[in-house]
## 1
Amino acid sequence: MALKEQPTESITMSYNLLKGKRGIIFGALDENSIAWKTAERIHEEGGTFVLTNAPVAMRLGQIKDLAEKTGSEVIPADATSEEDLANLVAKSVEILGGKIDFVLHAIGMSVNVRKGRSYTDEKYDFTNKGWDVSALSFHKVMQSLYKADAMAEWGSIVALTYMAAQRVFPDYNDMADNKAYLESVARSFGYFFGKEKNVRVNTISQSPTPTTAGQGVKGFGGFISYAEKMSPLGNATALECADYTVTLFSDLTRKVTMQNLFHDGGFSNTGVSQEVIEHFTEE
């Protein structure tokens, strides 16, 4: 079966959904990243933001090009450092001229995957580092915003996750555990942010997407092809995820919080597709 043709440009026009809104975007590395696409869409929808990433990631990526394109400032910050995050939050409020309306957490890294360690042979120093970067950092980001009272009322915080938090994908390794923790943090902190600040917190469980980080997972090509065959609507692209994220940052989703929202073309609710059946019954 041929893969479904995917849109190369946003299928939606700009509706100024984020006009006047201010935010922080974590994790834009290059034009393949979901955070990059989201930054472009937010800019198109009238939002302003600060871009941030770890200093080492900034040296490897092209974040300065994105900043120039969107008229944004870049603040280097290690998302595992409470000091860096406190500085980021304070400077962002100052630069943007007010409290924060939206935050995108698009950070993920497994040292075990990078070093070729299997799930049954983890090096726990690697595990702890990956967990801190990929999952605990989400709590640290929100705690920094919370303590500084930096979120505007009815603001929105989104983190990116993957379905391996619920089902086993062997080569996804300890990132599956990280994503499960991340989703739990969204629910738990979402309760407190909602009750006390009217801020909503959600995670988006995205289709496998050929980002720089995603392609580092063993067997990614076969993995994305399988998901395409299993998904009635086909895999969601990075740009389509950006569009969905914009809706969660907008005022149209004010009562959506503490949810893990599947954005995967129907993959998560498909037991088996006709294409997969045919593949395994071929003579």
## 2
Amino acid sequence: MELISSFVACGKSGTGDESKETTGSATTEDKNQETTDGKVEDTSGDKEDVVIKVAAIETAYGAEMWTKVAEAFTAETGIIVELTTDKLLEDVIGAGMKAGDYPDVVHLATGRPAALTETLIKENALEDITDVLSMTVPGEDKLVKDKIAGGFTESTLTNPYNDGKTYMAPMFYSPCGLFFNKALLEEKGWSVPTTWDEMWELGDKAKEEGIALFAYPTAGYFDAFFYALLYEVGGADFFHKATTYTEGIWDTPEAQQAFDIVAKLATYTEKSVPSNANNDNYLKNQQLILDNKAIFMPNGTWVIEEMADAPRAEGFEWGFTALPAVTTGGDSYSYTWFEQLWIPAAAENKDAAKQFVAYMYSDEAAAIFAESGAIQPITGFADTLEGDNKLFYSIYDNGAKAALGNFAATEPVEGVNFADTVFGTVNSLVSGDKTKEQWIEAIKKDSDLLRSALK
């Protein structure tokens, strides 16, 4: 686990010994290749081999899948890939980029401690890849935009400047929600709450038996939780206004409802959680669910593998649900976190790089990634999954709506870390060191500062 204040990194961006791999997909096979407008360009003959440099973060999915995808891409297009993978990719490519040596394609999500992707966003150093959406997927007859699941190219995670253009391609996605032990609820005769009122009722029942309603690995896990909650209380328009720091947004009834829910949930949270809510001890908080000491925790699909060898209560069975709705019959949301792929504006081989991006949404590439547990946001792909993955990725087929996006990028503001202000403060709410009112005032203060620095 690499992040203190970001939900998205836990379990996905692995730490440990550096594992760097640089390989070339060695083939000089000449094939027809598509241009960025989807037309076919003949590259056969005496033209030099096209070579692109692809840099990809090695996470819990491993590096082998990238080698296989690079080789398959070369076999399909004739474009040679020089591949670099590393668990600390920023350290490997950062120095070269400062010297003007840029990869052509980079797979590196936002939310990592080095913030390399965020830096390039703030410096307007990402290539506009909107045209990729209209390209034909290499090896197929479908357009990229018709392969990518709805909504994934319409959020601030892919369109960070709110200018109607796409700068980052959505990659491996993980539905985020509340994980629990199905066996515990069945044993007690308790139902999964469908509204927050039902959630509080369950919390009172559980308290009588010495079980906490809630736990979380670190306070950073409240990012996906809070984003989904913003959708629930006010819908997509409210979410957009909140995440772009619209003046007065935190004084609205919708915002107050979200604050009230988080503050009340803090009172139902196992009291030992804040002391272990850090990179060293977060697994202890996750263990609370496996030991039936707490019922629900926010997390992503990677938690299953992360806790695979951990002890657990007899009969334990993972359950997964979206957040309860705020009203009976209201919308229930599950935030979807996904990684991003992008092309530096300074890349040398942009046309070939865009073909590589388009190939990421081919059935062939998706199948290779899925072998390692990395699931692409491709329409209908969840139908091919089995077991726990079927449970997770079918959540949107069971009535939940997908929440996408995050707080908009701004120019740096000295002393402001909005993730810590909004999410990190939950530790203090649980411990009682800060009040709900103090939390709200800090959010409003920092939001005003960020609004003036909005790109």
## 3
Amino acid sequence: MRKFDYQAKDGSTNKIVKATVQAESENAAAKLLIAQGFTPLDIKEVDEDGTFIGRLKGRITTKDKIVFTRQLATLIGAGLPLSQSMHTVLEQTPNKRLQGVIEDIVASIEGGKSLTESFSKHPEVFDKVFLALISAGEASGTLDDSLRRVAAQQEKDAATMGKIKGALTYPIIVLVVIFAVMGFMLLTVVPQVEKLYDDLNKPLPWLTQGMVSMADFMITYWWLVIIILVVGIYFLRQYLRTASGIRAMDIFKLNVPLFGGMFRKLYMARLSRTGQTLLSTGVAMLDMLRITSDAVNNTVIADSVNRAAEKVKGGKALSESLKAEDYILPLVPQMIKIGEQSGKIDEMMGKAAQVYEDELDEEIKTISTAIEPVLMVVLAVVAGGMVGAILFPIYSLVNTIS
């Protein structure tokens, strides 16, 4: 049983009542309140574990959604009624939060709503691509095929993002190590060198003096450093949530040295794969472009797709509309043009997606191989510079004494 906080109007007194009720789902909670003579105004599930760890454990991962989608497709394809299929998937779902979502969807379906309407109540779990494919599958009677397509789409996207995250993990770890080494040496070793020079009344070399000044500042004003870091990170995160911040980050991803080409291919693969999946399920061209512009998850590319959609609405071919956009790589409009001539746009978009996915794999491997020696050189320069700044003064003192 789940807990729900509710706000309802008491039918006998006309007063607004706030309390908690236990029920299997939000729908069941509403029915229970109506049976007791209340008119529900607002019902919200109580998060009994609101801690960070609790939210992390309870979050719905891409893997959870893929397993759920594939199981539902298999059961519907086997001929089971929709409601029974949902109940069966519910029993096999280990994720508590996803269980709650499925329970709500089941209650909605049994209440007479369509599957698309029921899924659309949870946009934080099921995105526009998922909903569009479900809607097309319901309309065409090929719901099991649509579910398999959306699961395949999610798997490919998750695999690609996993490879990119893997490529970025190593340089991040090395940079953390570099800063840790710098901090350790500044706070422990450098002050000892300064003390040694003070005892001998000798002036410090300029490089060592710079490190000493930096160490003194960090030791004396450590609280100020922490405040600056915390405030800086907070305001940066807030800025990146604004429209201008999101756009700035999207432009940065497309143009950042070394990784810019990788991100461009990622977005082209995502655009082509999503377009192929939607068109092959029967989604109309303009609807496909509208949904795809959201699915690429980059405002710059989305603007390009939306501009192309406006041209298509005016009667221009999609290939020509996309060709004029700066951030759309040439292969996409070229393959679409072949598809327009052969009547197989979805198939050609799928081939374009495959090309970019393969190229992305190769580029990730190349970057991973090339970035290791670059980072090693950076680490050697930083560590060597600090060691030199510490050892050279000591050697100078030794030579002076001898």
